[in-house]
Structures are given as structure tokens and as C-alpha cells.
Amino acid sequence: MSSAVYARIRSNPKFDELVRRRGRFAWFLSAIVFIVFFGFVLGVAFAPDLLAQRPFTGSNITIGICAGLFQFIVFWLLTLAYVRRANGEFDALNKEIVDAAAKEVQ
Amino acid sequence: MMRIAIFSRLAMLATSVLSASAFAGDAISQTAKQPINLTAIGMFMLFVLLTLGITYWAASRTKTTADFYTAGGGITGFQNGLAIAGDYMSAATLLGLTAMMYTRGVDAYIYMIAFFVGWPVILFLMAERLRNLGKFTFADITSYRLNQGKVRTMAAVSSLMVVCFYLVAQMVGAGQLIKLLFGLDYGIALVVVGALMMVYVTFGGMVATTWVQIIKACLLLTGGTIVVLLALSQFGFSFETLTTRAMSLHKLGDKLLAPGSLLSDPVTAISLGLGLMFGTAGLPHILMRFFTVTDAKEARKSVLYASGIVAYFFNVVALMGLAAVIIVGQNPEFFEGGDIAGSIIGGGNMVAMHLAKAVGGDMLLGFLSAVAFATILAVVSGLALAGASAIAHDIYSRVIMKGTASEEAELRMSKFATIGLGIVAVLLGLAFEKMNVAFMVALAFGVAASANFPVLILSMYWKGLTTRGAIAGGYAGLFSAVTLVVLSKSVWVTVFGYDEPIFPYTQPALFSMPLAFLVTFVVSSMDSSEAAAAERAAFEDQYVRAQTGVGAAAASAH
Fold it and tell me: Which residue range(s) make up the domain with B389?
């Protein structure tokens, strides 16, 4: 692929929009994962008694188990959210940009 | 006072619990040979016949290097998701983590989360760029705008080290397992694994390897699900009944469902989290899977499916471990001399197998044994393919022949490389038979997180990266990771027999990974050579391609 095509895509304001929107979404989701996971790890290290508590009367489930299951489910839902938005909205925008660059060449 | 408390907790690192148990999930210890198990061998033979049939079919579709390394880029997101999950769930996941849950309760569950959490991050920050920039190996990406010879050589060297460390752990595990599950000799097991792996990879390339992974992942999911459903049916599918009885019987009592000693110290815990998260993102056989799909869309979908499958399976394993506390832990049949206070027949790793026998009889035990062996075979094949691509594509074709090698020559070289790696794997497996190889997995993840990952992520994200910086940082990460593991308890004390480790932790990533980033950053920033300026200028085009996929390697027509 020639440098000229790349330069043309680069100069399209929609490219900046794509990169900004997708990048912001990706880093936002990553930040959630980092904060929740390392927060949980620090909770395990510093407040194990809190995680050992049983929030529901009559149930053996501890806060630690809830937090673990919560992460498995929520982190997977975050991947679902990213894939849906990236494969839909962002890829549509991407296609627009690439098509525009291809048209200019002709 | 608070600070003192924190420091004293940090100081406790020296006696870190992590060192002993962190990678227990990936090591299979010495085992005693059991009587020959014909059901298991029969079921395994069925798996071998099926996969050899697929290899025969795949061989007719493996004509070019693109077919060999990446199945022509024609794998769908769902297939690749299953295959990635297959690559990631080793026999040690099934056996080691069930055993860990059985003995340590919820601590094992926390450990599983650390194993899982790398996947979302790989998706958000890496998956689409990997697919858009890569062709056959991740060195294609790191050397995209840098000096081909130097950067590729480094990436190939660290890839091969990761592959070899991981292979040793898998081969030794295979030999030990087969003694237990099939009642065959250690050496025979190694030769069987080595020979089958060579056949799959040399004839069927990535097509066969992918299907072996997919079949194995399905078998593993089926086996685990059947065992856990049968086990839970004994408790009326009630989590309360299960946990109440488990806590009343387990020596941890109430503590079974509370965090215990495994991650009690924060630096160790964070080190483990970082090492697993970014180590996963630097494993060459996992990275290679991103190049097998059609485009970035499918690459993203593969992570969605893979992470869903891995999350599901970890929860199945956790429930298996809890159920085993009651079903296996109270049954004298599974203990040496029939004493339930004594040790489990075959060692801790057999908990999952005993559970299968208790809930489903010899048929289910045979099935799960065959699945465990198939799992090792599949993981080893994926590793061999990644190693062969580093030798044939990176070192032979790009560095030695400087891109002038014909496609036939490169393909031939990759097949020789596979056979060579198979022989090396068997020999290493024999050499390390009597050794505790837990440290091999620490080494593999350490090198992946410290040498592969920093250079790879910076090459995609940081314009300022130069060849000198990448080389200095990559080798700094590589040598520091290896040195720290050698000086840690698992090698210095366990292998060399010294009293005290020089480096108090087993996971080097917390120290070697930042070092690699720092060295890369400093050396790149100070690099004022002409080549460096050209490399920085080339980032723009690479950046557009990474974001849009324009110019990315397309799927070959079939």
C-alpha cells in the first residue's frame, strides 16, 4: 500500500474522529478492568476479613465469591460491548474512510 | 504507623507464599505408575484417529507458507475463539486448578480471575492492531518499521525461549500424567506426544493444529460439564447444600470460602496479576492465532468467544474442586491405605480424575483421562508451530536469506524446524524427568511479559521507538527475567540446593517488565541516528494501517 494512500487517510478528519472515539472507548474499558481487578487484589491483601463476610443471611456466599463471579461476568460483558461497538459503529466509520481514500485514487 | 504496617507487609514478601504455589496450577509433580487403563487408552486412540484423519484432509490444503503458518487466514472468529481457549486451557488448568480449589478453596478462584483478566485487555488494546499489522509472527509487527535483522532475531530468540520453557513443562507433565492415567512408561508417553505433534504440524500446519485445538476444547468443555453436573446432582444442584457440607468437612472450615494465605501480600499479588496479564499478551503461540482470522472484526470476535469459554470453564473447575471436597475427600477408596486423613492416591493432581470416577465410573474416568492427554498434545502442537515459524519465517527467511528464499524453501525449512523441535522436546522431557519444572512456566510467562510484550506494545503505540531502543529493552527484559527466576527459590533452592534464594519471589515480571520498558524508552529517546529518524517517520503509515487495516495481509483464496 502506497504512502500516498496512507497520507490521504491521515488527512481525513474522520480518521482522527475514529481514532479518538475508538481509543477513548478502549482505554475507558481497560481502565475499568485495571481498577476493578487490582482493587480486588488489594482488597484480598489488605481486607481479607471484609471479603470473608456473608452479605446474604442464610447463604454461604461471601463477598469474595461475589466479587470474583462479578468480574468473570462483567469483564466478559465489557468484551461484548467493545466487540459490538467496534464491529458495528467503528467499522462502519472505518469503511467510510477507506472508501473515500480509494475513490480519490481513481 | 500505617506506613510501617505496609512496609512490614512488603517485607513479608521474602517468605512469599506465592513462590511455592503460584504456578502450582501449571506444574505436574512426580507420580507413581498406575495399572494400565484400557478405557482411557481406547478413548485416546479414537481422538488420535479422528485428528489424524483431519490432518490428512488438512495436508491437502497446506500448500503455501500462509496455509502453514496461519491456515491461509481463513479461520472464523468462532473457530479461532475455541482454538485460543484450547491453547490457553492446558491439562494443568483442569487438574492443577481443581486440586487447588480442593485444598485451598476460594484462593484458587482468585487465582483463576488473574488467569482470566488478561483477555479483555488483549482485546481492547491489542487484538485489532495485531491482526492489521501482523502476517505470520509477532516479529512481523515489531520489525515493521525497525531493522529487520536485529529486531527479528531478538523476537525469534525470545519466542523460542518461551516455546522451549513451555514445551518442557508440558512434556514432563505429559509423561507424569500418562504414568498415572494410562499406566504407561514416562518415555513412551514422551515419544507418543512428540511423534503425533510432528505429524500434525508438519503435514497439517495451522489448519490441522487449529482443528486439534477446537476438538480438544470441545472435549474438555464436555468432560468438565458432565462431571460437574453429575457431581452437583448429588447435592440437588444447591450451592448452599454443597458449600455447607464442604465447609463442615474441610480442614479450613468456614475459611474455605474466604481469601486465605495465597495472595495475602499485595506486591506478590500485583506481581502475579501483571505477570499473568501481560505474559498472556506476549505468548507467541497465542499471538500467532490472531493472524489466522480473516480480518480485525473476526479477531475481536475470537477474543469474545475465547474469554467466554475460559470464564465458563474456570467456574466449572471451581465447582468441581468444591464438590470433590465431599465426594472425593470422604471416600477411602481414593486414599493411600484407605485413610482419608492420609494422602490422595496418585497425588493432588488426581482430584479431578477421582471425582470423575466417583460420579461417572470407569467410562467417565477414561474419557476425562483421554481428554487430559489430548489437551497436552494440542498445546504442544501449538507451541511447536509457533517455534517453527520463528525459525523458518523470522530467522531463515527474513534474517539469513533476507527475504530471497522461495516459498518452497521456507515451507521445507518450517517442516524441518518442526521435526527438530519435536526431537528437542522429547530429549528435554527425558532430561528433566526427575525435576520439579514449575519454574519453567514462571520462565515462560516472565520472558513473554518482559521481552516480548514491552517491545510489541511500544512498536504499536509509541512513535519514538527505535531499533536500538527495542534491542536494548528487549534483551534487558529477557536477561533480567531469566536471571531473576534462576536466583529465585524455584531454581536456586529447589534445583541448585542452596538454603536461601537470592531473589525472594518467583514471578520476575513486576521487576523485569518495568526495566524493559524503561531501557527501551531511555535508549530510544537518546537515539539520534539517521536510522532512528527514518524509523520514527515511518510510524505514521504504520499507525494508519494499524487503525484501518488498509494494506493488512488478506485471507488467501481457497
Answer: 40-433
Distance (Å, whole) CA B256 – CA A78: 30
| pLDDT tens digit sequence for B158-195 | 999 999 998 988 888 888 888 777 888 888 889 999 99
Q: Do the Cβ atoms of B119 and B279 come closer than 8 Å? A: no
**CATH code, domain with B211:** 1.20.1730.10
- Tell me the nearest-neighbour CA distance from B536 into chain A, angstroms: 15
Does the distance separating the beta carbons of A44 and B259 come in below 8 Å?
Answer: yes
pTM metric for this prediction: 0.89
Mutate to test the interface with A, among B117, B135, B298, B510 (most CBs of A within 10 A): B117
3-state secondary structure of B454: helix
Query: How far away is chain B from the Cα of A20, in angstroms, using its nearest Cα?
Result: 11
Shortest alpha-carbon distance between residue A35 and chain B (Å): 12
Chain-chain contact of B266 with A40 (C-beta, under 8 angstroms): no
Contacts across the A-B interface (CB distance below 8 Å) = 162
Q: With respect to residue B294, please indicate whether it lies within any of the assigned structural domains.
A: yes
Instruction: Please report, for chain A, the start and end positions of each structural domain, with discontinuous segments joined by +.
Output: 3-105
ipTM of the complex model: 0.93
The stretches of B182-265 forming alpha helices (DSSP H) are 186-233, 239-249
Could you tell me if B335 and B344 are in contact, meaning their C-beta atoms sit under 8 angstroms apart? yes
